[in-house]
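Sanity check. The docking grid for alpha-D-glucopyranose depends on where the pocket ends up, so I'm generating a full predicted complex first rather than guessing from homology. Inputs follow.
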Amino acid sequence: MSQHREHSDHQLSDRERGDRERSGRAERLWWMREARFGLFVHWGLYSVAARHEWVKQRERLDDDAYQRYFEHFDPDLYDPRRWARLARQAGMRYAVLTTKHHEGFCLWNSALTDYKATNTPAGRDLVLPWVEAFRAEGLKIGFYHSLLDWHHPEFPIDGLHPQRDDEQAQAAAKGRDVRRYADYLHGQVRELLTGYGPVDYLFFDFSYPDRTWGGKGRADWRSAELLDLIRSLQPDVVVNDRLDLEGDVVTPEQYQPTSSLADDGRLWEACQTLNGSWGYDRDNLDWKTPDQLIRMLVDGVSKDGNLLLNVGPTGRGEFEPRAVGTLDAIGRWMDQHARSVYGAGPATYAPPPDTRYTQRGDRLYLHLFAWPFRHVHLPGLAGRVQFAQFLHDGSEVPAEVIDPERQAQNTTMSGLGPDVVTLTLPVRQPDVAVPVVELFLEPQR
Ligand code: GLC
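Predicted complex below; grid placement will be based on this.
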C-alpha cells in the first residue's frame, strides 16, 4: 500500500467522505441484509470475574486489583469450531467477536501492547483460530473493537472511567494525551485489518461526546481519519454507527425498535443479550426464552432489521449449557422456518393483531405470536393468495374470502370486508415455537 494513497484520503471533506460511504453502501450491505441473524461473542478477562463486562467500572477496580483476572485467564476448554457449529446450527450467518472490550485486554497478539492473551495462561492468539473456525463453517466474520480503553496509559480518565471518583488517580493521569491513545487505536485497527484476511463487519463501541465529563467522540478517536484508513485497507467492510459518524449499520441495543431505524440505505441491527449481560454473568438468571428470542428476530425482520444475539463464554472458554440449549432451540425453529427470515423483509400489508409479516418476493410469511381460536383474518389480501400452508410441515391452511353479505348464524360467522382473506387454523397450536403460515401470492398484474 503506497503511503501517497492514504495521505490523499485525509484531505477528503466530510461531504466527500459521506458521499463515498453512501455510494458503496448497498454493495457492502447485501450479505448482511440477506443474513438477518448473527452471533455476538463477548469474551475477555471479565469472563473470569463472571459478573458483567463492566465489572472493572462498576466496582471501580484499578489495574492492580484487576490484574488477578489477567493472571487467571486460562481458557483451556476453548474450542472455536464448536462455537461456530453451534452458531451455524442456530441459523446464524455471521459472527462478531470482541477483539478488545473497554477493559483494554486484547484477544489477539497485538504488537502494540503486552496486555494481551499471549501473555496470559492462554498463551496464544485467540482471534486467529476463531476466524478460521467461523469461516470454515461458512459464516461471515466481524470484529467488535472498543474505542474506550480503561487500561491504556494515554486514555484520559472521564466520567465513565473506573477511576472516575479517584482524585489521586486523576492527578496522576493529568498528562494523558488522547491523540497518542488514538494513534494506538488506529494502529490496532490496522493490525486487525491486515492480519486476519477479509473482515466483513467492524462493530466499534462507543462514542459518548456529551454523556459525561470528559466524554469522547469523533475528534478524540480521529474517526474520519480512521474510517479513511479502514477504507484504504478493506474497502468492502461494513462499519457500524458508533464512531460518531453515520456508519452503514444503526445499532440499537437491548430494546426492540417499534419501526425501522434505517435511512439513507443503511441497515439496522438490534444487538441483544440472552440475560441482560454481554459478558458471562454466572449468577444472572434473567434469561430470555427461545420463543421470545425468535419473536424478536422475526419482529426485527418485519421492520427490515437484523438480530445480533450475544453469548458470553465462560473463563474456561465454553458456551454455558443454557446458552447452548437456547441456540439449539432457535436452530430447531430455523431448520423449518429459515426462508421466512433469510433475505426477507417488511411486507406491504398490515398484519392482524399478535402477528408479524415478513416478505420475500411473492412469498408472504404470517408469523403467529399468539394462537387464535380457529381463524385469522388478513385485510387487503383478497385475490392475492394462490395457496397457504404451514411452513413447518407444508400442510395446507384453508384460505377463503367470506361473502361480505353473509349473515352470522349459529356456527356461521358473518362476512367481513371484501378485501379480507380468512385462514382456518387447527384448534391446537402446532408444536413449533412460532407457527408460520406461508402465503403464495398471485403474481402482481
Ligand atoms: C454497550 C455495553 C457494552 C457492550 C455493547 C454491545 O455499549 O456497554 O458493554 O459491549 O453495548 O453493543
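Relevant for the grid: The first helix runs from residue 3 to 9.
Also worth noting: The mean pLDDT is 96.
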